[in-house]
Structure formats: C-alpha cells, structure tokens
Design a protein that fits this description.
This protein is 48% helix and 13% strand. By secondary structure, the protein is an alpha+beta fold. The strands form three sheets. The protein has a five-stranded antiparallel sheet with strand order 1-2-3-5-4, covered by helices on one side. Strands 6-9 form a two-stranded antiparallel ribbon. Strands 7-8 form a two-stranded antiparallel ribbon. Helix 6 crosses helix 9 and helix 9 runs antiparallel to helix 10. The chain is globular, with a radius of gyration of 21 Å. The mean pLDDT is 92.
Length: 360
C-alpha cells in the first residue's frame, strides 16, 4: 500500500498502535484515503479498518504541535496554549448534546487524533436538488444545534474552555475590517487608499464595531457554515469548532445563511423564514429575551462585517498564501455585501465605496 505523502512511517506506526489499543490487536488499517482539507494547516485521512471497531475512522493529522489556533487574529492568550483547542472545545460541547464527531483517541503528542467518521456530505451538498421544504428542514436542524450551542453553552459557562477566554470585541471586529481594507482593496488594487477615503471608511467600520461590541455576547462556533455541518443519517453533525468564542448571538446565524455560495440555496424568503425560526427556537430554549427588530438589525450588521472580512480573507489566501480556488467565492460575497447594505440605508456611503472599488 502506498502511503499518502502527509503520512510518514513514524506517524503510520503511531496510528497502527492507537488502532490496536482502542479496538484490539486483531484490528488493522487496511486502506488509507486522503480527505479534502480546508484553509487550515490540518489534514485528514480516512482509515479503513479490518477486525473490531467501526469500518472507518478519520485521522486528523496536526501540523507542528497542533496547539496554534487556525486563525491568526485569535492570538489573544497571555500564555502559550498547553492543550489542543479542538480537544478543549470538544470536551465542553459533547456533554451538552451537540452532535460533534466522537474523539476515539488523543494522539496529539504524535501529531494526530482519531475521530468518528461522519461521512462526506456537507450540508451545502446535501441540499442540492432537494425541494424547498426539505432544505428548510435541514437548515432548521442546523439552527437547533446552533441554539443549543449558544443558549445551553453560555448557560453552562466553564472558564477552563478556551472559548470563554476569547471574545469578539471591538479590537477583533476592527482587525477583520482592516483585513478587508488591506487585502480586499489596497493589496488587490496595488495602491493604498487615499487618506480621506481611508479615514472615512475606518470611521464607518469603527461605528459598526462599537455597536457589535456593545451587543450581548454568547458562545458561538465562529465558522458555523454549511461546509462545517455534515448530514449523516438525516441528522446534522458539527465539525471545525476549535475557534469557538463569545460573540453576538446572530454572528453564527448570519454565517449559516450567507456563507460562500449559500445564497443559491437560501432564497430571501427562506432566509427570512429561518431568521424567524431562530428567534422562536432561541426563546423556546430559554435564551435571553430580545425583540425581532433588534435581532434583524444585529443580524445584518454581523452579516456586513463578516462578508467584508471574507472578501479580505479570500484575497489574502489567494495573493499571500497561494491557495487557489477561493476567488470564485468573492463575487457572491460581494453580492451579499450589496444586498445587506440595501437593508442598512444609514451606511449609504459604504455602498458607494463598494460600487466604486468593485464595479458590477
């Protein structure tokens, strides 16, 4: 058998040893298949097993120590991390009933984890060709898991979980807006903004950051989009939660309903219906009372902020990191920015700036 390039002999030996320890010495890895990765430094392979245990498991292969967070801007801890963020957050979410993949073996000292295999069908792909009612059912399930994380997770706060040690605050909102200015505008266009335009844009972004910073914060997944939600046995499974933190309630909701090319699935009428469902589900689970009008305004401000960050991030991944393929998601994200700005007439000047720098 030819090993994937990401797996050297020492790593393979450590995985073989872990498989035997968990499922018995009669269990062997018969085949290894690489799985699609993401923008992080982690990689994944599917292990096919013979003998005891499940037919397949997934090995998360860690880069370096594996202790660093996947997002550079989350380097906010006073001391270096001593534990893998994925495991730290997993131990908090799993007892709440969040449908995260089971961790079978902690092999981080050898550069890997063994995880439950939840299949190959992200929510985005699962919805292809489905009738509108079935799409809504799946997204309602995703909202149920989200409200569980946000309401129950916040209620059962545990400061040993790193998610409660980091917060989407004024600094982080502005960091992401600056990411948009640097990579979505200046680096992409090859020249700095004029001092007047730069000052005007930063004033608008500072105003939005202040309003979001002052909103009540709850536990959020942070990357709760349809590529981090899988459908297995007709149920939603949640992955990639290691960057969880405190944020406005609607931050994850707008991510779910507006990521990448999701607007091709979530129509404006369905978006509104799912926002309404979130509002109901939130209060039925006992979340803090807030009006639908406040939810809608906060939702759109979070959506605008996140979409700007995503444009900057995708240009950064393409131009700085050489990761190809993200540019195809930029036009629909810009369309999202235009769409949400139409709902926020107080930011008409920002609409003009976007139109100038990103002509139709």
């Amino acid at each position: 058998m030819v090993l994937p390039s990401i797996m050297d002999i020492r790593l393979r030996q450590a995985i073989d040893s872990a498989v035997a320890e968990v499922w018995g010495h009669g269990t062997r890895v018969s085949h290894i298949a690489p799985l699609a990765g993401d923008a992080s430094s982690r990689s994944y392979v599917r292990l096919h097993l013979n003998g005891g245990g499940p037919a397949t498991v997934v090995a998360m292969v860690l880069a370096g120590s594996g202790l660093s967070l996947s997002s550079d801007e989350l380097a906010v801890f006073a001391e270096p991390l001593k534990e893998l963020p994925y495991l730290n957050v997993y131990r908090f979410l799993q007892p709440l009933g969040v449908r995260v993949p089971a961790v079978y073996y902690d092999g981080q000292k050898n550069g890997f984890l063994l995880l439950e295999d939840i299949g190959d069908v992200p929510l985005r792909e699962a919805t292809q060709g489905l009738p509108a009612a079935e799409i809504e059912r799946l997204y309602r399930q995703a909202i149920d898991q989200l409200v569980l994380i946000q309401v129950e997770g916040t209620c059962h706060r545990d400061d040993s979980c790193i998610a409660f040690q980091q917060r989407f605050d004024h600094r982080l909102f502005l960091w992401e807006f600056e990411h948009f200015i640097e990579w979505g505008l200046e680096k992409r266009e090859g020249k700095p903004l004029s001092s007047a335009e730069g000052q005007e844009l930063r004033q608008i972004f500072a105003q939005i950051a202040t309003q979001l910073d002052q909103a009540p914060h709850f536990l959020n997944h942070r990357d709760y989009h349809s590529w981090n939600l899988f459908v297995q046995n007709n149920q939603i499974r949640v992955i990639d939660f290691q960057d969880a933190l405190l944020a406005p309630a609607t931050y994850d909701l707008e991510t779910l309903l507006n990521d990448r090319d999701t607007p091709t699935v979530i129509t404006p009428s369905l978006e509104q219906a799912l926002v309404d469902y979130y509002h109901t589900a939130w209060h039925e689970r006992g979340g803090d009372v807030f009006s639908h009008d406040r939810l809608w305004e906060e939702y759109n401000l979070c959506l605008l902020q996140k979409a700007c960050k995503v444009v900057g991030r995708f240009y950064y991944l393409e131009l700085e990191k050489g990761k190809r393929g993200y540019s195809r998601y930029i036009p629909p994200t810009l369309a999202t920015i235009r769409r949400v700005l139409a709902r926020l007439p107080q930011y008409g000047r920002l609409q003009d700036v976007i139109a100038e720098h990103f002509p139709e």
